[in-house]
Amino acid sequence: VEAMLGSRKHPQQSYRACLGVLRMAKTYGNARLEAACDRALRLNATNYRSISSILKNGLDRVAETSTQTSLPLTHSNVRGPEYYH
Fold first, then answer.
1. How much is the pTM?
2. Measured between alpha carbons, how far is 70 from 17 in angstroms, rounded to an integer?
3. Alpha carbon 63 to chain centroid distance?
4. What is the pLDDT of residue 21?
5. 82: left (phi over 0), alpha (psi -120 to 50) or beta
6. pLDDT at residue 2 is higher than 80
7. What's the pLDDT tens digit per position in 25-66?
8. Distance CA 19, CA 41 (A)
9. What is the 3-state secondary structure (H, E, C) of the chain?
């Protein structure tokens, strides 16, 4: 809720969205809402629609997969920087 209030120039503009998010606790429960909000904060997607989507799709129950960056391939077909100069 604090992130939603801080995202607008005038915090009053996000009051209804905050109330809507808090109202989701009646449908989904406090634990699921807390998990969804935590996930939304990590994704920097702190708006009503994002939190609602996380809950509807059950993403609050799914563990996040960490994406590993793969190292560049090194084999004979890859040209090095010397090729371009």
1. 0.65
2. 39
3. 13
4. 87
5. alpha
6. no
7. 999 999 999 999 899 989 888 888 999 999 999 888 887 766
8. 17
9. CHHHHHCCCCHHHHHHHHHHHHHHHHHHCHHHHHHHHHHHHHHCCCCHHHHHHHHHCCCCCCCCCCCCCCCCCCCCCCCCHHHHC
Residue with tokens 């809720």: 1
pLDDT band at residue 67, thresholds of 50, 70 and 90?
low
Give the N- to C-terminal CA distance of the chain in Å, as an integer.
Answer: 54
Contact 36, 51 (CB under 8 A): yes
Q: Whole-angstrom Cα distance, residue 36 to residue 47?
A: 11
User: Token pair for residue 59?
Assistant: 């993403």
**What is the rounded CA–CA span in Å between residue 84 and residue 8?**
48
